[in-house]
Write a structure and sequence with these properties.
By secondary structure, the chain is of the alpha/beta class. 39% of the residues lie in helices and 16% in strands. The chain folds into three domains: 153 residues, NadA-like (Rossmann fold); 119 residues, Rossmann fold (3-Layer(aba) Sandwich), CATH 3.40.50.10800; 80 residues, 3-Layer(aba) Sandwich (Rossmann fold), CATH 3.40.50.10800. Helix 6 links the parallel strand 6 and strand 7. It is globular, with a radius of gyration of 22 Å. Bound molecules: iron/sulfur cluster. Iron/sulfur cluster (SF4) binds next to loops.
Length: 388
């Protein structure tokens, strides 16, 4: 079970030993440094102060920024990436403090992979993930028990990176693995070498799209609704299934529809459509290419100048890509902005607050995972990192 320490009301600094050379001018000993006082800080002065705090912390801090993060925040990231790349960075980071500008499950993974002297900070604890929230450990354990009760079923659990530490630990403890959108096929191949069927948690679409591309027919896939007995399936359907897909989805990627693909093709003849595998099956089938976040970046960057791309993923990444590759047309597949609203909760003010507290000797919003959960989740995450 993960434990959160929310110090959003930071206690007085009195009595805290602070290296004089690190103390920022705004934070005086004995003066509370709470988030409320940062709320009205304008973005422009935030930028200057973030840069100053980061400079004061030097090698002690490493800032990780997910590709979906807003520009005002990601400009300060030492490393940018998707959840796979950032979890590798977290495992290799040298800094004492890992400030994770992503969402909660990513910071948990960083805490599982960190070295013993490091601490992981999520600048806003409300930066969660709607998909990860669609599977809780109690539901997964109930599902597992119902599957075991059918008798003699070989099931290997695979959980997407976008899940809680408790579910990652469950997969590690039960012979499974974590996967990302970059290596989901490799992890599923690994799983099929160990059992007849895969329980794929929590993204129905990533599981279906990956399995279909591996040659598994749709009629060998079932959806597990955690609010129904046996997931809403008959025992025969479960026994026939090669993949059991947890009924979960990403609120951003689910918004893309086949109609968007048809429309963009009408409006931009010759345009290539590339979508994230968290999109619906029908959208993936209508697209030209499927790509993880890093895969989308590589495909567009490797294309010749003059290329046209409609991209089905979070809009901050699409917009940044269009700015960085002005000799190509890069547009969002959905004309109505698709923002990851939870990641958007991390503002420059939150980053500033976290960094200036660190300068003052306060660790705020630390993410910690308990030892047992860490042990088994680490097994599942290390399997993921070893499979490409
Ligand atoms: S884009 Fe979707 S899956 Fe990714 S963090 Fe946001 S809600 Fe979760």
């Amino acid at each position: 079970m993960a434990t959160l320490i929310n110090l959003s009301k930071t206690p007085s600094l009195a009595g805290i030993r602070q290296p004089a050379t690190l103390r920022p001018p705004e934070v005086e000993p004995g003066v509370a440094c709470d988030f409320d006082s940062y709320l009205l800080t304008p973005d422009t002065s935030c930028s200057e102060r973030i840069a100053a705090a980061k400079a004061r912390l030097g090698q002690d801090v490493v800032i990780l920024g997910h590709h979906y993060q807003r520009d005002e925040v990601i400009q300060f990231a030492d490393f940018r990436g998707d959840s796979l790349k950032l979890s590798q960075q977290a495992a290799e980071a040298q800094g004492r403090y890992i400030v994770f500008c992503g969402v909660h499950f990513m910071a948990e993974s960083a805490d599982i992979l960190r070295r013993s002297h490091q601490e992981v900070i999520l600048p806003d604890l409300s930066a969660g993930c709607s998909m990860a929230d669609m599977a809780d450990i109690g539901q997964v354990e109930t599902c597992w028990n119902e599957l075991q009760a059918l008798g003699n079923l070989q099931v290997v659990p695979v959980t997407y990176m976008n899940s809680t530490a408790a579910i990652k630990a469950f997969t590690g403890e039960h012979g499974g693995s974590v996967c990302t959108s970059s290596n989901a096929a490799a992890v599923m191949r690994w799983a099929y070498a160990r059992g007849e069927r895969v329980l794929f948690i929590p993204d129905e679409h990533l599981g279906r799209n990956t399995a279909f591309r591996m040659g598994i027919p749709l009629d060998r896939m079932i959806v597990w609704d955690p609010y129904q007995e046996l997931g809403g399936n008959s025992p025969e359907a479960v026994r026939n299934a090669k993949v059991i897909l947890w009924k979960g989805y990403c609120s951003v990627h689910q918004r893309f529809l086949p109609e968007h693909v048809a429309k963009v093709r009408r409006e931009h003849p010759g345009i290539r459509v590339i979508v994230h595998p968290e999109c619906r099956f029908e959208v993936v089938q209508a697209a030209d290419e499927i790509g993880s976040t890093e895969g989308i970046l590589k495909a567009v960057q490797a294309s010749p100048p003059g290329s046209q791309w409609a991209v089905g993923t979070e809009v901050h990444l699409v917009h940044r890509l269009s700015q960085e590759r002005k000799d190509r047309l890069v547009i969002s597949l959905d004309p109505n902005v698709c923002v990851c609203s939870t990641m958007f909760r991390i503002t420059p003010q939150h980053l500033l607050w976290a960094l200036e507290n660190l300068v003052a000797g306060n660790v705020v919003n630390r993410i910690t995972v308990d030892d047992r959960t860490r042990h088994y989740a680490r097994i599942a995450l290390e399997r993921m990192l070893s499979l490409r």
